[in-house]
Design a protein that fits this description.
Layout: H1 17-26, E1 29-32, H2 37-54, E2 68-73, H3 84-87, E3 96-103, E4 106-113, H4 116-131, E5 140-143, E6 149-153, H5 184-194, E7 199-201, H6 214-227, E8 233-237, H7 242-245, H8 257-273, E9 279-282, H9 299-310, E10 316-320, H10 332-340, E11 351-356, E12 380-385, H11 401-408, H12 421-425, E13 436-440, H13 456-467, H14 473-484, H15 489-510, H16 537-540, E14 551-552, H17 569-576, H18 586-589, E15 592-593, H19 604-627, H20 635-667
Parallel strand pairs: 1-2, 2-4, 6-7, 6-13, 7-8, 8-9, 9-10, 10-11, 11-12, 12-13
Antiparallel strand pairs: 3-4, 3-5, 14-15
Helix pairs in contact: 2-4, 8-9, 13-14, 14-15, 15-19, 19-20
The structure holds alpha-D-glucopyranuronic acid (GCU).
């Protein structure tokens, strides 16, 4: 039985007979005209994939004959007749081309790139086409990634616990590294390379300085060596106080010469063993982490000190904008903008500021972060959370591509209409050369990597969108289902329907109409809209839902926290008037009366109940849809998802009941007719 270990790289026999014949005729042999370590990886992958997909082994040949799959970089001898320099002039170091052509008068299929990594990406792209039963007779593909740094952030601790990780322990077995190399590291790298991910931050943003000591750097080196031929660079988190903790200094002040010198030496030590080390990710002065503000310096002072240290080696610094202090009596959603916007233009060229998709914290639905479009002189990186901290962990089925897309497609209006978040982070809006997208990983050492079988699609879609943010959530789901479960049209459409609906359903049973952060206050799993157990001032004095007798919602207009002022004026206009505000964000921006008339004609109270009930009912619908798949997908996978959907359905009812009954203590209104019956 399948156990999900192979992820989307399943390579099972092509079930469409016509396609199978077609593929067998088109690919009679293959040739990788290259001897790099990456080429070795490609050879192994082709052997594995073609044997599985075509049901027979396809030989490696020595020269192009009829039906050869030809793979190489621009200078490959076997491809010398093809004017590759010209064909590859627009695809950069990581892009690739795939096309059918004649070589020595023989029909061949060519996958070519400027560099090794592009070759590998091209091969995985081609294999995906076979896995999803695409035609391969008339190909003219040119593909270039839209963002440069496509990177996973592992919130993995050195003791192998994973902060907000729900799929077991960390993959990194620090205890046995560097001598023992778990074969799984290779499969991790294959999976990432297959979707174009080219970087990984191995350690938690709440960093431990020990990772920068020689003993740990040896272990990191082993991983970096292993990942290199897959096109993956290793990055680490830097604990700002490391010069004190492991360096024996009295201060970590970024303007102190000794501190600067310490980091320069540390960085040189790292690059000596990892010449292509990517750089640092830093969380500073947020949630109790140390940072430059401890010394009355600002974020740019801190980031620039590290940037100067990695600059001679082409390293970068990803400085996080997720900063807030719960003792500061300012709406938390405003704090990042307040601190970072004034620093625009003061960061070094090799710094990117990494911004969460929304201004609060990875909620089921948030408006886009107001920093996007507000710092034109600084390359801003996207930070998405793939792990479902606020979306039911690895227990609830929630496909996140619609959430990612909603943010990427949002218009900041920073330079007029069409200034989407996607264009901010791919660098095109302001012509930045650096660009990037980070995803907080949902990967652990569970046999199936991500806990929930469908959670694998979130890792997958993050990578696909980092490569090309114009892909639709539907198209990505389509590929993923075909590669993971089946190409059967009915199965594909059924699973796709569940996936596409799942995020909106979750929003409805958790936080409809713009509600936010009403989950259990520390674990963030189940419902916790009640104030009494909130231990922090920002929750009790300015608690986000603000429910009271007259109404509910957080006023972020001029008469409230005025967080809206941080957006460009066309965006402000979209949300400032409660009568015109998109109802999906109503209670995010407005405090409104329980009796307010909604678009549906219902009162706000009735609509709130309606959405909670609809969410819970739809969780049941997901279950029913899935149950029709029995016998059509792998049985073990079928049963696993079935039992998880059963939990999700029960917990959707739990969310609904908890929230409706709690809010009813303020509204003092009856539950609308038809809904009062218990499940
Ligand atoms: C959330 C999460 C923390 C994490 C933080 C961050 O608040 O709950 O565990 O450390 O985000 O992004 O730094």
């Amino acid at each position: 039985a399948e156990d999900g270990y192979e992820l989307w790289l399943r390579y099972s026999l092509v079930t469409d007979q016509q396609k199978l014949n077609d593929y067998r005729n088109t690919i009679k042999g293959w040739l990788v005209d290259n001897n790099s370590p990456t080429a070795q990886i490609i050879r192994k992958e082709l052997q594995r994939a073609l044997t599985g997909l075509l049901g027979k082994s396809v030989p490696e040949v020595k020269s192009a004959t009829e039906g050869t799959l030809l793979i190489g970089t621009a200078n490959a001898a076997a491809l010398s007749s093809l004017d590759l320099k010209n064909r590859l002039k627009n695809v950069g170091p990581e892009g690739f081309v795939i096309f059918n052509t004649k070589v020595n008068n023989k029909n061949t299929l060519v996958i070519a790139a400027n560099e090794d990594a592009g070759m590998l990406y091209g091969v995985f792209h081609f294999l995906r086409m076979l896995q999803t039963h695409q035609p391969i007779g008339k190909l003219a593909i040119e593909s270039t990634p839209k963002t440069k740094v496509r990177i996973l952030n592992h919130w993995d601790n050195l003791d192998r616990t994973v902060e907000r990780g729900y799929a077991g322990f960390s993959l990194w077995d620090w205890h046995k590294l560097p001598d023992h190399i778990d074969p799984r590291y290779h499969d991790y790298a294959r999976a990432n390379a297959s979707i174009g991910i080219n970087g990984t931050v191995l350690t938690n943003v709440n960093a431990n300085a020990l990772i920068l000591t020689p003993a740990y750097l040896k272990k990191v080196t082993a991983l970096a060596d292993l990942f290199r031929p897959y096109g993956i660079r290793v990055y680490l988190t830097a604990r700002f106080s490391a010069p004190i903790e492991i360096g024996g200094l009295k201060t970590a002040d970024p303007l102190d010469a000794q501190v600067q010198e310490w980091w320069k030496r540390k960085v040189a030590e790292i690059y000596k063993v990892i010449p292509d080390f990517g750089g640092f990710l830093v969380k500073a002065n947020s949630e109790g982490q140390p940072g430059p503000q401890n010394y009355n310096r600002n974020h740019a002072d801190g980031a620039n000190m590290l940037a100067d240290a990695v600059k001679p080696f082409n390293g970068i610094v990803m400085w996080r904008a997720f900063v807030y202090d719960n003792n500061v009596p300012v709406d938390r959603t405003k704090q990042a903008y307040n601190e970072f916007k004034p620093l625009d233009g003061t960061f070094r060229g090799n710094v990117m500021v990494q911004v969460k998709n929304g201004p609060l914290d990875f909620q089921p639905r948030e408006p886009f972060h107001p920093l996007f479009g507000a710092m034109p002189s600084t390359p801003l990186m996207m930070e998405f959370q793939i792990t479902q901290e606020y979306l039911g962990f690895a227990t609830h089925l929630v496909y996140l591509a619609p959430l990612f897309k909603e943010c990427l497609d949002a218009d900041t209006h920073a330079k007029g209409k069409g200034s989407t978040v996607a264009r901010v982070i791919d660098g095109s809006l302001e012509n930045h050369t650096l660009s990037g997208m980070a995803g907080v990983a949902n990967i652990g050492n569970d046999r199936n990597w991500c806990g929930h079988p469908v959670a694998q699609s979130n890792w997958y879609s993050f990578g696909r969108l980092a490569w090309d943010h114009t892909l639709s959530a539907e198209a990505i789901a389509d590929e993923w289902v075909r590669m993971t479960f089946s190409n059967n049209v009915a199965v594909v459409s059924n699973i796709k329907n569940i996936m596409i609906a799942s995020r909106d359903i979750t929003v409805k049973y958790m936080t409809p109409l713009g509600l936010h952060h009403i989950m259990g206050w520390n674990h963030h799993y189940g419902p916790g809209p009640w104030i009494k157990d909130k231990p922090r001032a920002d929750w009790t004095s300015v608690y986000y839902h603000q429910a009271e007798e007259k109404g509910i919602g957080f006023n972020r207009t001029t008469s409230g926290s005025n967080a809206l002022e941080q957006y460009q004026s066309p965006v402000q206009q979209l949300y400032s008037d409660p009568e015109k505000c998109d109802e999906r964000y109503l209670l995010w921006f407005h405090h409104v009366s329980w009796d307010r008339k909604m678009k549906s004609g219902r009162t706000l109270w009735d609509e709130l109940c309606h959405q909670y009930y609809q969410g819970a009912d739809s969780a049941k619908w997901m279950q029913q849809q899935w149950n029709t798949l029995e016998g059509q997908v792998d049985d073990a996978q079928f049963r696993f998802v079935k039992s998880l959907l059963n939990i999700q359905q029960q917990e959707a009812v739990w969310w609904r009941n908890a929230c409706v009954l709690y809010f009813q203590t303020f509204s003092k209104k009856p539950i609308p007719p038809g809904f009062e019956k218990p499940d």
